[in-house]
Design brief:
Layout (H helix, E strand, L loop, with lengths): L3 E6 L9 E7 L2 E7 L18 H4 L9 E3 L8 E3 L2 H19 L4 E5 L6 H5 L2 H7 L3 E3 L5 H8 L16 E5 L3 H4 L1 H14 L2 E5 L5 H5 L2 E3 L6 H14 L5 H7 L3 H9 L3 H8 L3 H13 L3 E5 L9 H15 L8 E3 L23 E3 L3 H6 L9 E5 L3 H4 L3 H8 L5 E6 L11 E4 L8 E3 L6 E5 L12 H11 L11 H6 L8 H7 L1 E3 L37 E6 L13 H7 L3 E4 L1 H7 L6 E6 L2 E9 L7 E5 L33 E7 L2
Parallel strand pairs: 6-14, 7-13, 8-9, 8-11, 9-10, 11-12, 14-15, 15-16, 20-24, 21-23
Antiparallel strand pairs: 1-2, 2-3, 4-5, 4-16, 17-18, 18-19, 20-25, 21-24, 22-23, 22-25
Helix pairs in contact: 2-18, 5-14, 9-11, 9-12, 9-13, 9-14, 12-13
The chain binds ligand MGD (2 copies), iron/sulfur cluster and molybdenum atom (MO).
Keywords: Iron, Iron-sulfur, Metal-binding, Molybdenum, Oxidoreductase
InterPro entries: Asp_de-COase-like_dom_sf, MoPterin_dinucl-bd_dom, Mopterin_OxRdtase, Mopterin_OxRdtase_4Fe-4S_dom, Mopterin_OxRdtase_prok_CS, Prok_Mopterin_Oxidored
Family: Belongs to the prokaryotic molybdopterin-containing oxidoreductase family.
């Protein structure tokens, strides 16, 4: 068999969207390497993905359809054929539609695969049959909410190389989007840019910045107001620009006035001198950049957090220059939703929030209730808020659940039917990005492992078994892929080299014709009591992204799991001393909802009042509980719908 090098792209939920080359020898993928030609990837994949073939060849990979034989969640299944599986799903879905109506069916996917076909194409079946639709996000929903008000939150991240000051605000780039760091380094080299991390934790990234400003989580909007206040006091605010973008500048200026450096210091824990100094460096830069992460959005302050940073970026006028402004995301010209064919969904079909699964499955008021669920690219039993409620919902005996997966995850264990999915090495796909401006094309390097199937094939098989004749359900993969691309897109080059740079035009706040709102309705200093940030003297548990895992993906892979290590709480020495705990102790975090065992690491890299768990682990219960942090998370969302994963408050005690 000939050897070959097959172009493809990393499908994981990461802003970098790397382009890769799979090396195939005698029909086996021997390695997967970063594409050297791709200007973003620069030949390097990350610590999660650089041995990607081991995922495809993993001994615990799901390779056949399965039917449940034991209780839900028991993990007891029997092997069945594809025909049996598809027949059973078609029959169950048909019965549910007859008895309860189409809206009793719920599709549910997240970003397990970012490939447009793998992630989205199955939705056209659900839209066509009139199943409940989906809206909302588990991820940067606060950013989406502020963007929906007209605030731009994205531009081409490569232009950050032009910046003279980059505030990495709650963004741990070296773990979560390490290719973005290159452009920060270029700015440092070419423009002497200062790179400053604002984060409750001295992360890998913070350690490489020019400065790290530790901040109490949830207090960022006050720091943003304080910085804005200094820009005004110093006469370096760009009022002309702000007036061209917003119609409430005066209200905003009034709101921030109370936020003097001293008051900001009391609430945020940032020294008043630092507030002034950062403001001056940021204000004087031409331009300055706010590079903002997702983690800080995942608390009840999330929407205000994003809004306050957009207001600061507007007031500074940095949007006037390329690379300046507010950068949370970045996009190529690519229509992500085209493969879903949303137009097939009957008008008036109800829509469900994809981040409220526990409530949706356990509600007594939902009419019709959800009777049939299909999940792909998502592990809700670990990643949805209030995970015990999700699990209770999935244990309902009157719920028929299908899970499409690579592995027997905690979610798959609760399915009635499990279908094996191909990996990116085994199927064709095309994808945009949420962090940069390239479209990626993925060609299969090897045939499907075992009986695994791409989702588009599952779509065609199921549509046919359900007796449907809508032509879109039977479209070939290339037609579906091309529907994501604008007219005149250079398909030939994309097809040949596996990627194409296709940036969306830069849009700045002034392009909104002066209609934006800068005001965040921020509380005044007199309304805030710092102790409210830590109810009952508990610690806030921050669940940050693991360096070697991608959310819960790879938690079952020995290499990545070994490097990530066992669940560990990082805790400030002052808090540990207060609690009588020592480095290396076995401890348990608990609140009214559950317990979470971990090993304690006492370290001054974390601010007081906060403990940090790096990682999403699978359920594996022991006598002290399980490491799934969302079991301890109350069901809460911001007004904009962001689940508040980081609002977990716990007591930490020694394990018995
Ligand atoms: N290695 C790896 N990479 C990933 C992922 C992964 O799981 N592992 N997940 C991917 C996904 S889905 C996403 S959404 C992105 C997320 O990418 P990031 O947003 O960069 O990741 P997080 O770790 O969630 O949060 C970033 C930082 O915010 C800090 N933080 C938390 N709360 C606050 C706060 O209130 N204020 C401030 N200033 N900082 C705060 C945390 O300490 C953390 O260092 O990463 C993607 N990339
Ligand atoms: N406490 C807490 N909770 C959080 C977060 C947090 O930081 N803290 N982060 C939140 C964020 S930002 C996000 S984005 C969500 C992420 O939540 P999820 O999207 O559930 O993230 P993963 O754990 O990566 O699970 C993705 C699943 O998709 C599967 N998969 C991958 N590729 C394919 C494929 O091609 N086909 C199929 N069928 N399956 C595939 C993987 O095996 C994996 O089980 O979690 C959220 N939950
Ligand atoms: S997870 Fe992100 S950084 Fe790692 S290879 Fe994939 S796209 Fe690149
Ligand atoms: Mo995310």
């Amino acid at each position: 068999m000939a050897n070959s090098e097959v172009p493809g792209c990393c499908p994981h939920d990461c802003q970098d969207g790397c382009s890769w080359v799979a090396h195939v020898e005698d029909g086996q993928v021997t390695k997967v390497v970063g594409n050297k030609q791709h200007l973003f990837t620069r030949g390097i994949l990350c610590a999660k993905i650089n041995d990607y073939q081991t995922r495809a060849y993993a001994p615990d990979r799901l390779l056949h359809p399965l039917r449940r034989t034991g209780a839900k969640g028991s993990g007891e299944f029997e092997r069945i054929s594809w025909d049996e599986a598809i027949h059973e799903i078609a029959a169950e879905f048909g019965n549910i539609i007859d008895d309860w109506g189409s809206e009793a069916l719920m599709p549910l996917h997240d970003m397990g695969s970012a490939g447009a076909l793998q992630r989205r194409a199955l939705m056209r079946l659900f839209h066509h049959i009139g199943a409940s639709r989906l809206h909302g996000s588990l991820c940067g929903q606060s950013g989406n909410t502020v963007a929906a008000e007209g605030h731009p939150i994205s531009f081409d991240p490569e232009t950050i190389a032009n910046s003279e000051c980059i505030l990495l605000w709650g963004a741990n780039l070296l773990s979560t989007a390490h290719h973005h760091w290159h452009f920060c380094l270029e700015a440092r080299k070419a423009r002497s840019a200062k790179i400053i991390s604002i984060d409750p934790r001295r992360t890998r990234t913070a350690a490489k910045c020019d400065e790290h400003i530790p901040i109490r989580p949830g207090t960022d909007a006050f720091l943003a107001a304080g910085i804005a206040n200094v820009l005004v006091e110093d006469g370096i605010a760009d009022f002309e620009y702000a007036r061209s973008a917003a119609d409430d500048l005066d209200a905003y200026l009034e709101e921030i006035q109370a936020w003097t450096p001293d008051r900001v210091g009391e609430i945020t824990g940032v020294a008043p001198d630092d507030v002034v100094r950062i403001a001056r460096v940021y204000g004087a830069a031409r331009p300055g950049t706010l590079r903002v992460g997702i983690g800080p959005q995942q608390s009840r302050f999330g929407d205000v957090f994003v809004k306050s940073l957009s207001a600061l970026a507007i007031l500074s006028g940095h949007w006037r220059l390329p690379g300046g402004g507010l950068s949370i995301e970045g996009y190529p010209t690519f229509d992500n939703t085209a493969p879903e064919c949303p137009e097939l969904s009957p008008e008036g079909t109800r829509s469900l929030h994809r981040g409220q699964l526990g409530q949706i499955l356990t509600s007594l008021d939902l009419d019709p209730p959800i009777k049939g669920l299909m999940v792909w690219g998502h592990n809700p039993v670990v990643n949805q808020i209030d995970a015990e409620t999700v699990r209770h919902g999935l244990c309902r005996n009157d719920l028929f659940t299908v899970v499409i997966e690579h592995f027997m995850t905690d979610t798959a264990r609760h399915a009635d039917i499990v279908l094996p999915s191909t990996t990116q090495l085994e199927h064709f796909d095309v994808q945009g990005s949420w962090g940069q401006c390239y479209v990626g094309l993925n060609k299969p390097a090897i045939p499907p492992m075992g009986e695994a199937k791409p989702h588009t094939e599952i779509l065609r098989h199921l549509a046919s078994k359900m007796g449907l004749d809508e032509p879109a359900l039977f479209a070939d993969d290339e037609t579906t892929a091309r529907s994501c691309l604008p007219d005149g897109f250079d398909w030939e080059t994309l097809n040949r080299q596996g990627w194409l740079y296709a940036p969306q035009p830069r849009r700045d706040p002034a392009s909104m014709g002066g209609t934006l709102k800068m005001s965040t309705a921020l509380d005044g200093p007199e309304d805030i009591d710092v102790s409210d940030l830590f109810p009952d003297g508990r610690l806030r548990l921050l669940t940050v992204k693991p360096h070697y895992l991608l959310n819960s993906t790879f938690a079952n892979m020995p290499r990545q799991a070994g490097q990530q290590g066992i669940p560990t709480f990082e805790m400030n020495p002052a808090d540990a001393a207060n609690l009588g705990l020592q480095d290396g102790d076995r401890v348990v975090a608990h609140n009214g909802k559950g317990t979470l065992p971990a090993i304690l690491r006492v370290t001054d890299t974390v601010v007081r009042g906060t403990t940090v768990l790096e990682g999403k682990f699978w359920w594996t219960a022991d006598k002290d509980g399980s490491p799934v942090s969302n079991r301890l998370a109350e069901s809460n969302w911001t007004d904009g719908g962001q689940p508040t994963f980081n609002d977990i408050f716990v007591k930490v005690t020694a394990a018995n």
